[in-house]
Structure formats: structure tokens, C-alpha cells
Design goal:
Elements lengths: L5 E7 L3 H12 L6 E8 L5 H6 L6 E6 L4 H14 L4 E4 L5 E2 L3 H11 L5 E10 L5 E5 L5 H9 L11 E3 H6 L11 H10 L5 E12 L4 H4 L1 H19 L7 H6 L3 H21 L3 H14 L1 H16 L4
Parallel strand pairs: 1-2, 1-4, 2-3, 6-9
Antiparallel strand pairs: 4-8, 5-9, 6-7, 6-8
Length: about 300
């Protein structure tokens, strides 16, 4: 196996209690050829002090005013293009990469040179105890992943994704107008032009924080997801996209019901992770009644992973 250089980009915003573990999980990777670029997005909690104690010759640390994770990632994409890194990996500052993550993902993209990106199966861990409390699984075939993303479902898991740099550059990187759900918009635009895949191995741990941006602003995140899907539909029909304000101002009763449903599903899912077996089954059953598409996707992921030639 060859070892092309990988740029790991970590957007950092107020993750002081967790960032050292996130950084160390990259520094102990079995893959030998990487650089970790940490983009401090205007942290105010002293996260930079932690980073300064961890500096390693494989690390770079830059600062910017608080502009959001999309802006931080675009700094990384520009750096990767300028310095000729063929691969760019996302790493969230409060999560943990398992030691073989980069090695497995680079191996997969080298095996399938037409694939623009891959993520992997992930564990959910409790923010305080770090006990595994659930799992987030993904499919492997490009057709199924594309279908999931276009349905507003998982498809790829952003924090665990390895991209081909040139693919990110060709679609214009992240659109910073997306204050939330920026990854949904990115993935939708990516699969419009490229096939993507996933590793069926568990390579990443997602820390579930109740103070995370997506949990604190769940309703806004859902609205931006629906906006990203609306933009994608308009592109598919060769219609001009609405700007976010125009989309928001025209939200009707049907969309409001959908937003409320998505919030209810999120509450059920989050509660199920802390529940005993019987309550978990009840919550998942209720979720399936509310949104059968998600239940179907869970079944199809297992079938897809078992029978696809990818993974």
C-alpha cells in the first residue's frame, strides 16, 4: 500500500474539555503520512491553550474570527489544494478517531479511484463517561448512499469522512451561507457529480453533547436541512435556488408539520440512547410509525452492506 499525504482538518470552537483527546486520536493513527490542521474558529473557552500544549511537528494551528465550521473547512480545503494533498479528512474537535481510521479509508479510496469520499460506521459515546451507548451505521454502495442523502438521511457521516481534495474543490467546497446543516448541502452537491462509498468497519466515535450546536439549535438545523434539499431539487429541475430568507419566509403548514415531526423523531432517538431495552424498542417503534422511510433505510443498509462489492 502506498501512503499519499492526507490533510486532517479539525474545525475547533469551544471544545476545551475534549480537544486533547480528539487531537491525540489523530496523532496515534497507524497511517504514517498525514498533517493535522486545526482551525480555531474564534474559541473563547481557552481551547487554544490546550492546543499549545499538544503541538507536534505533524500539526498546524491557525486562528480565525468566528465564522462557522463551513468557513473553517474551506480554509482547510484551500490549504490542501495549495500544498497538493490528494486527500482531506474531517475530524471534529470533540470526537475520537479509532487508530486505523485513516489507513482503512485511504485503502478504500485507493481501491476505488472513482469514489470521491468515504466515511465509516461510528459509535455514539456518552459525553461524560465515554461509554458506548449506540451506533450510527452507513451503507456502502454509491447508489444507496446517494438515495439516502437525497432523502435527507445519513448517507455519509461528516466527522468520519475522508474526501478527495479535488472533488471538494470542483464543487466549490462548503457554502458558508449555511449556518447549520452545512454538510447536508455539501453532500447533496457532491453526489450530484461523484459516486461515494463507506467503510463497513467502525472507525470513529461520536461524542453526544447536549450543548452541541446541532442539539441546541435542532429546529434551525432541521430548517437548513430542508432548505438544502429544496436547493437540490431546484438544481435537478434546472430552476434557480431561493436564498435562505425567501425559503424561510415561504414555509407553509405542510413544512411546519414536517419540522415538528423531525424534532419529535430527534427527541425519540436521543431518549432511546439512554433507555433500557423495552423502552428503546417502544421509542424505535413509534419513530417507525412517524417516519417509515427511516425504518426502511435501516433495513436497506444491512442488505446493502451484505451484498455490495464495496466496503
Amino acid at each position: 500500500m502506498s501512503f499519499p499525504p492526507v490533510l486532517v482538518v479539525m474545525p475547533l470552537y469551544n471544545a476545551r474539555p475534549y480537544v486533547a483527546q480528539a487531537v491525540n486520536s489523530i496523532l496515534v493513527q497507524t497511517y504514517p503520512n498525514f498533517t493535522l490542521l486545526i482551525v480555531d474558529d474564534g474559541s473563547t473557552d481557552g481551547s487554544n491553550e490546550v492546543i499549545n500544549t499538544l503541538l507536534d511537528k505533524r500539526m498546524l494551528f491557525i486562528h480565525q474570527q468566528h465564522e462557522g465550521p463551513g468557513s473553517a473547512m474551506n480554509r482547510g480545503i484551500a490549504f490542501a489544494q495549495e500544498k497538493n494533498y490528494p486527500f482531506l479528512a474531517r475530524m471534529d474537535a470533540d470526537d475520537i478517531s479509532l487508530p486505523n481510521r485513516l489507513e482503512e479509508q485511504v485503502r478504500l479510496l485507493l481501491k476505488y479511484p472513482d469514489m470521491a469520499a468515504c466515511s465509516a460506521n461510528c459509535y455514539y459515546i456518552d459525553s461524560d463517561t465515554e461509554k458506548i451507548i449506540g451506533a450510527s451505521t452507513v451503507g456502502c454502495s454509491p447508489t444507496f448512499i446517494r438515495w439516502e442523502i437525497r432523502q435527507g438521511l445519513r448517507g455519509l457521516i461528516q466527522g468520519a469522512t475522508l474526501f478527495r481534495t479535488q472533488a471538494l474543490v470542483s464543487i466549490g467546497g462548503y457554502r458558508e451561507t449555511f449556518k447549520q446543516s452545512e454538510e447536508t448541502d455539501l453532500f447533496l452537491r457532491l453526489v450530484e457529480r461523484y459516486p461515494v462509498t463507506n467503510s463497513a468497519k467502525f472507525l470513529y466515535k461520536i461524542r453526544l453533547r447536549r450543548d452541541s450546536l446541532s442539539m441546541q439549535n435542532a429546529r434551525e438545523n432541521i430548517i437548513y436541512t430542508l432548505y438544502a434539499l429544496d436547493c437540490a431539487r431546484r438544481r435537478a429541475n434546472r430552476q434557480p435556488e431561493k436564498d435562505f430568507r425567501a425559503f424561510f419566509d415561504q414555509i407553509n403548514k405542510s413544512l411546519l408539520r414536517k419540522i415538528d415531526r423531525e424534532q419529535r423523531l430527534l427527541r425519540y432517538w436521543r431518549k432511546s440512547l439512554d433507555s433500557k431495552k423495552l423502552q428503546k424498542i417502544i421509542l424505535l417503534f413509534l419513530s417507525a410509525l412517524i417516519d417509515p422511510k427511516r425504518a426502511l433505510a435501516r433495513i436497506l443498509r444491512k442488505v446493502d452492506t451484505k451484498f455490495t462489492r464495496y466496503c
